[in-house]
Amino acid sequence: MEGTSGESETQRKKELTVNVPVPEEKPFTLWPGKYHSPVTAALWHASSSFAQRARNVSMDSPAQITLQSKTPEENRTSVVYKFSSDTSLREEYRNPWNLFRIGKLLEDLDALAGTIAVKHCSDSDHTTRPLLLVTASVDKISTKKRLRVDVDLELAGSVTWVGRSSMEIRMEVIQPVRELREKDDVALIANFTFVARDWRTQKAAPVNHLVPQTEEEKQLFAMGAARDAHRKKLRMGNQLSSTSPFAKEYNDRLTQILREVDVGDFVRLKSCVLYTETENVEQPRIHVEVIAHVTQPELKSSEVSNTFYFTFSLDPECQAPGVDRTVRRVLPATEEEARTYLARYKADHIVLPSGQM
């Protein structure tokens, strides 16, 4: 980190303070770019009291009986990345082509969503055993515009819907960062679904209620409830008929965690271009499937952990003179490839209830 005067260093600490309150503790000051990203530090800080509580409370302690009612504003958390002034932080998120490292940003989104989930599920009774929170799925991540690594960026999120033992957290990436936000400032939107489990029984555990206050919060709550009802309906249909293509289509919209990946596991990634869309000559789209397998060579076994779907487009601003921008069509060569292509195409173009992503 570049050397600065004591006064400017103190000022920068204040600017980068993240609102992750802990009872009877001073605000936690982050040092982004020095050891870790702002979101990772925020997650460590928010989880520190949670982890300490888990160590101090016996698993035989009673579960939380009285559920609290919280507003989305109570768990709303945001982190600002000072890319314009912090060169060390900027280099952490810059790739060799001077573009943004999207993978690192997605890691931060998941970390911040976990922080928000911890905040919402926490209670004031330190005698009850805490909940075990797990990322269940990530809804379709929509990128609205290209991110810049030299402009300040903000990650913000809050719980927008709560069921009995699950919750949906809406995450937004905002750039540029300004006092009066405009609609075009939102660069990325993603919905994370977390489920709560009891530490001792490993069964589903109820979470605190959510009480939306504003019209926007009520609308987001209704959209989350509709998505949950839609998923349950399709899951029920899939159980009744495993050949239901409609159920598979919608389920493929989600990045579902089928098997956890532990440190030390061998992971094999298999990718291919499923299909392309060339109707828009200026910005054709390329749809890619990536399947992550956890392999155990000694047992000669391989399990699917996750299936990811990425959509890429060509940026007209990056057009080099004399370079052919024609994107080739991708045609299936086998019956299995044709079925995969049709299922993915229908999943990408499925019509959800009004107002949903």
From TrEMBL:
Stored SUPFAM superfamilies: Thioesterase/thiol ester dehydrase-isomerase
Recorded GO MF terms: hydrolase activity
CDD domains registered for this protein in UniProt: BFIT_BACH
InterPro entries referenced in this protein's UniProt entry, alphabetically: HOTDOG_ACOT, HotDog_dom_sf
Keywords, in A-Z order: Hydrolase, Repeat, Transit peptide
UniProt KW Hydrolase keyword: yes
This protein's name: HotDog ACOT-type domain-containing protein
Gene that encodes it: LOC112282556
